[in-house]
Specification:
It is an enzyme of class 3 (hydrolase). This protein is mainly beta. It has five domains: 206 residues, Sandwich (Jelly Rolls); 101 residues, Immunoglobulin-like; 206 residues, TIM Barrel, CATH 3.20.20.80; 106 residues, Immunoglobulin-like; 308 residues, Beta-galactosidase, Chain A, domain 5 (Distorted Sandwich). 10% of the residues lie in helices and 39% in strands. It has twelve helices and 60 strands. The strands form 13 sheets. It has a 16-stranded antiparallel beta sheet that branches. It has an eight-stranded parallel beta sheet with strand order 30-29-28-27-26-33-32-31. A hairpin with a 6-residue loop joins strand 50 and strand 51.
Length: 1017
């Protein structure tokens, strides 16, 4: 029996009565209004956003009889905000998947349980004359039927592209009823299996246009260069709704200055003109120069209309196997971006989009891939204005087919060709006037096949001025560049080497920014900069797709897949961004800003204050950029000044001698030079003084070599012991060791307990998302989480002025033959100084050993009244060994609470790398932890177990003590939730190790001097 194909399952329909796609433009009556580019001031424009009546159904078949008629009673229905996603308002079910379709794969058919929303809007229209009235839906998921006053106007699908309908013959003066029936699932859903929440409804703005029946229908702009890229030819082309208009006046403006004017002839409603632009200001992401063209024409009724068109003069080509903008090779430091808002889902505001663009520019990002569909149209205006290269991606992803074993099921099926091509054509026709769009993308993760060839050909027929890419095209047959994703470093280097006669390469996705990470960004940047064929990449992704919630205490947290009972789901895989859901930058974004810095500083000879400054901009000269110089010794400022950089052309470098007093700096310990590159004046995206990037260097001759300085004190020590405890004490201190477990149970100074338990060796960290493919072995095969110390022996020796305690132990875990022999050597002095040296010797027996440990470190529980942390190391944000370049070495202060990074999904966080010492403070007293080598540390007011048990922000159970962990080594972060694993040099192995430190009480004002020596050897 043949199943009946419903309209929303008909692959042969791309729409019914939907108008042809065209570029966005607006009509104005006056020049002053036109030059504002404010569409709300335009002629005949009406925004229909706001409250609509709403009826939610489990399937279209349950629609009430005559629901589309004007007499259908709607007053008692619910109201819903347009635009919005109905699941956010409690209708239907929230569901997140990355790859899987949420229904059986049986194309083109969709489930009978097909959630449906019917929207109603009563609209008053007055003074309807001989005009054309167009209703525009900017985004509706996934398909919909439109009715006006009881009549069926049309049907459309393709969720993230506009759909326009001519409703002129359906409306009348007075009240009119708009009825829109929206289907969550359609045959188009098979093409919209992107990694995101399944959200439905009218999620972008609805607009109405009242226009003259002879008005302009479409217009597009192209610019092409001469051979020297000095002069460009401007092409203006388009068409009118009729052939009544025969002439237009055109003016070109650059900012407020008119730079050209000319007349355009219109024949049979169509026009095309070529105009030479002599030495124009060119558009690029670093210098986004824009022009405005105004087209003025007179209508049959004597009215004038003015059309403003903002454009940039630029070219994009592949020349000599390089991607070149305006003839110059460019490099992409990009991100992938979804439209998303934590309270509105796929509905985004102008403020959201502007904030995204400003954050990207401030963090040195120069490119965006609109993953994986055309974004809200306003976003492209912002990219034009502020300067971001855009890969504009078609609303096309068929990822779920990969799991069927036939990835190309519909991509290589000619019956679907019309659907594929429709999505490409509508994207290009909407966005082709944006200079920021330099590349079209055919979609994402949809296999390969003939339909992509058809898309490529259709795009090139409309627009031959841009490049086309598709990552699934492994041989670049229908792609102008070679694109891969999550390519590991070794393979990426091979691509870089294999350059002769090959198309240029970009990574459309890499460095999966999920949870704590990504790590290893520096190595990617080094490889991509090393080989000319490699022209950069796009980090996955911009922000965490968390759904905002507020608990009973007013604390904000975010939900992810599975929190709504949705199954199957990919859980927190949607929490994978460089910014948190509230658009706060994560440590990953701070690190990315540094790694992709456009100004690189290298030391040449600091004894002569010589550095090298490399300009990695593609177009911008560094002339005038402010170089702010500070020389500091710990927290003491030695010297400070600001100079302006000389001319350094893009991609050039220059040696500079720093203008500071070197002889004076040599008088100080650990004198460091801090360099900050600042914007000299306000820019579009940042204020004067905005930090572009920074660097710091230690003056080698001033490096502190910590010494041993004894302190004589006549304070006899008393030693007590019984079967279970060893107690050492005098008037200054008291230490208690367990003779059963071989652990320090208590360390008191002047009657106040400082250490409540520890130190103990730990190999474990709370699992980060990038550990997801290792954690099962770590937990269930090697039982690293359960690694325990086994007591072997304890001995002590009374010396003159101190006591030595030596504890031998063995550490391993359940059913493991490998482990560590441990020797804890404590020296406690008469004045209560606790000096520890831990030596670990690896024991390798058997063949089953982990290839990587999370960490090797010691953990101890501390008095939580000492809640202020001062450290000399990297800061002030967190850092890990493969993600630390953004954090300069210096003296930093925070509370213990501030040492926590509040990831949406709680996990290991807060490490500070390369630390020389730290101090915990209460009042005017501090406890100094002085390290014998540079160490990484974390300190938190919770246990690791509590961190792992918490699944959301604000849900971590606090402990009655602070937990300090000092690492011999801590494995890097990597990007292996989807990308590269931790690189070998950042992996902790089963290896011999030593950790040395000293703990003592000091006065706050003595911290710096006390950190320069040890009291006990």
């Amino acid at each position: 029996m043949q199943r009946e194909m419903k309209r929303w399952e008909n692959i042969h329909l791309t729409g019914v009565n939907r108008l042809s796609a065209h570029t966005d433009f607006y009509r104005y009556r006056e020049f002053s209004e036109a030059l504002t580019l404010n569409k709300e001031m335009s002629k005949g424009y009406l925004l229909l956003d706001g409250e609509w009546k709403f009826l939610f159904l489990e399937a279209p078949e349950f629609s009430p009889l005559n629901f589309e008629t004007k007499d259908f009673e709607i007053n008692s229905l619910d109201s819903i905000e347009v635009p919005s996603c109905w699941q956010i308002h409690g209708y239907g079910k929230m569901h997140y998947t990355d790859v899987l379709y949420p229904f059986p794969i049986n194309p083109p058919f969709v489930p009978q349980d097909n959630p449906t929303g019917i929207y109603f809007k009563d609209l008053i229209l007055e003074n309807i004359k001989e005009e054309k009235i167009v209703l525009k839906f900017n985004g509706v998921d996934s398909a919909f039927d439109l009715y006006v006053n009881g009549q069926h106007v049309g049907y459309s699908k393709g969720s993230r592209m506009p759909s326009e309908f001519d409703i002129t013959e359906y409306v009348k003066n007075g009240s009119n009823r708009l009825t829109v029936r929206v289907y969550q699932f359609s045959d188009g859903t098979y093409l919209e299996d992107q990694d995101m929440w399944w959200l439905s409804g009218i999620f972008r703005s609805v607009e109405l246009f009242r226009m003259n029946k002879n008005s302009l229908e479409d217009v597009y702009i192209e610019t092409s260069p001469d051979e020297d890229y000095k002069n460009f030819t401007l092409k203006l082309a388009g068409k009118f709704l009729t052939s009544e208009v025969t002439e237009m006046k055109a003016n070109l403006y650059q900012k407020d200055e008119k730079v050209d004017e000319f007349t355009i002839e219109v024949e049979d409603g169509k026009f095309q003109v070529l105009r030479n632009m002599v030495n124009p200001l060119l558009w690029n992401a670093e210098e986004p120069n824009l022009y405005v063209a105004t087209l003025e024409y007179e209508l049959e009724n004597g009215e004038k209309e003015i059309i403003p068109l903002r454009f940039g003069v630029r070219s994009i080509d592949v020349i000599d196997n390089e991607i070149r903008l305006n003839g110059k090779r460019i490099f992409f430091n990009g991100v992938n971006r979804h439209d998303f808002n934590p309270t509105m889902g796929r509905t985004v505001t102008y403020k959201d989009m502007l904030q995204d663009v400003l954050l990207m520019k401030k963090h040195n990002i120069n490119a965006v891939r609109t993953a994986h569909y055309p974004n809200n149209d306003v976003f492209y205006d912002l990219c034009d204005e502020y300067g971001l290269y855009v890969i504009d991606e078609a609303d096309l992803e068929c990822h779920g087919f990969e799991n069927t074993g036939n990835y190309n099921w519909i991509s290589d099926n000619e019956l679907w060709e019309k659907q594929y091509v429709d999505r490409a054509v509508r994207m290009v026709k909407r966005d082709r006037n944006h200079p920021s769009v330099i590349m079209w993308s055919l979609g994402n993760e949809s296999g390969a096949g003939r339909n992509f060839t058809a898309m490529y050909d259709a795009i090139k027929e409309m627009d031959s001025t841009r490049l086309v890419h598709y990552e699934g095209d492994c041989v670049a047959a229908y792609s102008d560049i070679y694109t891969t994703m999550y390519t590991r470093l070794n393979a990426l280097e091979e691509i870089g080497k294999d350059s002769e006669g090959k198309k240029p390469h970009i990574l459309c996705e890499y460095a999966h920014a999920m949870g704590n990470g990504p790590g290893g960004l520096t190595e990617y940047q080094e490889i991509m900069r090393k080989y000319p064929r490699l022209q950069g990449g796009f980090v996955w992704e911009w922000y965490d797709h968390g759904i905002q919630q507020v608990d009973e205490d007013g604390n904000v947290y975010y939900l992810y897949g599975g929190d709504y009972g949705d199954f199957p789901t990919n859980g927190n895989f949607c929490i994978d961004g460089l910014v948190f859901p509230d658009r706060t930058p994560s440590p990953g974004l701070i690190e990315y800003k540094k790694v992709i810095e456009p100004i690189v500083t290298e030391q040449i000879d600091l004894n002569h204050l010589k550095i090298k400054v490399k300009n990695r901009y593609d177009f911008r000269n560094l002339s005038g950029i402010l170089l702010h110089i500070k020389v500091k010794s710990f927290d003491q400022l030695i010297e400070e000044k600001t100079v302006s950089l000389q001319s350094i052309n893009a991609q050039d470098e220059m040696e500079i001698t720093l203008p500071i007093n070197f002889e004076n700096a040599l008088k100080y310990d650990d004198a460091r030079i801090y360099l900050s590159y600042l914007e000299p004046e306000n820019t579009l995206y940042a204020n004067e003084g905005h930090l572009i990037t920074s660097e710091s260097f230690l003056i080698p001759a001033t490096k502190v070599e910590k010494e041993y300085i004894s302190k004589a004190l006549d304070a006899a020590m008393k030693i007590e012991e019984d079967q279970t405890q060893l107690i050492l004490e005098n008037d200054q201190f008291r230490t208690v060791f367990s003779k059963v477990h071989g652990i320090l149970l208590s360390y008191q100074i002047n009657g106040e307990e400082i250490i409540q338990k520890g130190p103990e060796l730990t190999l474990w960290r709370a699992v980060i998302d990038n550990d997801m493919y290792k954690k099962d072995d770590w937990i269930n095969k090697y039982f690293l989480k359960n690694a325990k110390e086994q007591f072997v022996s304890i001995e002590y020796q009374l010396n003159e002025g101190s006591v030595d305690v030596e504890i031998k132990k063995y550490l391993s875990s359940v059913n493991q033959a490998w482990g560590f022999n441990l020797i804890y050597h404590y020296r406690i002095t008469q004045d209560g100084v606790l000096n520890l040296h831990l030596k670990g010797e690896k024991v390798l027996r058997g063949n089953e050993i982990p290839q990587m440990l999370p960490r090797i470190g010691i953990s101890m529980n501390l008095n939580n009244e000492y809640n202020d942390v001062t450290w000399y190391g990297r800061g002030d944000s967190e850092s890990y060994q493969d993600s630390k370049r953004s954090q300069s070495i210096g003296l930093y202060r925070k509370s213990v609470e501030e040492m926590h990074t509040d990831y949406v999904y709680p996990q290991e966080n807060g490490s500070r790398c390369d630390t020389s010492f730290l101090a915990l403070t209460k009042g005017n007293q501090s406890i100094l932890f002085n390290f014998k080598e540079l160490r990484d540390f974390t300190i938190h007011n919770y246990e690791t177990n509590a961190l792992e048990e918490a699944k959301h922000r604000g849900k971590i159970e606090k402990s009655p003590y602070n937990v300090l962990t000092i690492d011999y080594r801590h494995s890097g972060l990597g990007s292996n939730s989807c990308g590269e694993e931790q690189l070998p040099k950042y992996r902790v192995q089963i290896e011999d190790f030593e950790i040395g430190l000293e703990i003592r009480r000091i006065h706050n004002e003595d911290l710096i001097e006390e950190s320069k020596f040890f009291r006990a050897r």
